[in-house]
Design goal:
mainly beta; four-stranded antiparallel β-sheet
């Protein structure tokens, strides 16, 4: 059984027991979280697709940790113009552990 959820403007395919990194959420570490934005639920041959969300479906998760991702290097360069600029960015994330999928 798996579900497709929406979090932080992105879609994630989740199943019970897995961990995933989503955009930063304002929840404490160890807090239980209920995600209502479920776009699709698949249970063997039973498929429920929402328009845009599945009514009555939810995904329960637990906040494992918060952190920052790997550094992404941004380089801007114009040849022969004496212009070179380097920048770095590290995106904040929240790590979730999926505990239940309620269809």
């Amino acid at each position: 059984m798996y579900a497709v959820i929406k979090s932080g403007g992105k879609q994630h395919r989740v199943s019970v027991g897995e961990t995933l990194k989503v955009e930063l959420l304002k929840e404490e570490v160890g807090a239980a979280l209920k995600i209502e934005d479920v776009l699709m639920v698949v249970n063997d041959s039973d498929i429920k697709i929402g328009q845009p969300v599945v009514e009555g479906a939810s995904v329960e998760a637990e906040v494992v940790s918060h952190g920052r991702g790997k550094k992404v290097r941004i380089v801007k360069h114009r040849r022969r113009k004496h212009y070179h600029k380097e920048q770095g960015h590290r995106q904040w994330f929240t790590e979730l552990k999926i505990t239940a999928i309620n269809a």
